Amino acid sequence: MWRISKTNEQLVITELRRWHLIGLAFLLVCFGGWYYQFLFLPYTHLSKQLYNWPMLPLFLLAPLLLLPAILREARIAGAGQVFTFDRSTDRLLRNRTLLCAMSMIDFVELRTISVVYADSNDYTGYEISVICRDDKKHKIADGVDEGELLHLAGEIADYAGLKVVQK
């Protein structure tokens, strides 16, 4: 979910933090539950298998793969994520950090990401990025609601005078 505010000089897109708080809570519960079952549940046949040398490092280190996602969710939940398209200074900013000059943006891309699972529970997601003339790609938003993301991509394209390319 995003909040869009537009003036003559700026288009500000703010990613709402509550969704990241929910995501952060989910990741922390999964992370904590993983170690809780290993450290505090009774010594069962499964845990006997896990205490063997080849499995122990894998079992202990596997949740560390979630750390980048946890840190990203914590950063956005704490400080938020704000993209500013500023016509007066010809800049695209993310959290007040310069990404590129607006005049360097070539088009807005709405990419469809499809994953097909064997049990027919397919996933379709969408990602909005701005593509610069030097082939740099800056991700703006992602989600599963095509209509909402198409509207957001349209707002960006209208404000910056660009076209939306769907892939």
Please describe what this structure looks like.
- The model has no long low-confidence stretch (mean pLDDT 84).
- Helix 1 (18-39) runs antiparallel to helix 4 (67-79).
- The chain is an alpha+beta fold and 167 residues long.
- 38% of the residues lie in helices and 34% in strands.
- A hairpin with a 4-residue loop joins strand 7 and strand 8.
- The chain starts with a strand and ends with a strand.
Residue-averaged pLDDT, rounded? 84
How do the strands of the widest beta sheet line up side by side? 1-2-3-4-5
In DSSP terms (H or I, runs of 4 or more residues), the helix count works out at 5
End-to-end distance: 22 Å
Gross geometry: elongated
SSE topology sketch:
Layout: E1 2-6, E2 10-15, H1 18-39, H2 45-50, H3 55-61, H4 67-79, E3 81-86, E4 91-94, E5 97-101, E6 105-115, E7 123-132, E8 137-143, H5 146-160, E9 164-166
Parallel strand pairs: 6-9
Antiparallel strand pairs: 1-2, 2-3, 3-4, 4-5, 6-7, 7-8
Helix pairs in contact: 1-4
Put the structure in a nutshell.
By secondary structure, the protein is of the alpha+beta class. It is built from 5 helices and 9 strands, in the order ββααααββββββαβ.
Task: Sum up the structure in keywords.
167 residues; alpha+beta; five-stranded antiparallel sheet; four-stranded mixed sheet; 5 helices; 34% strand
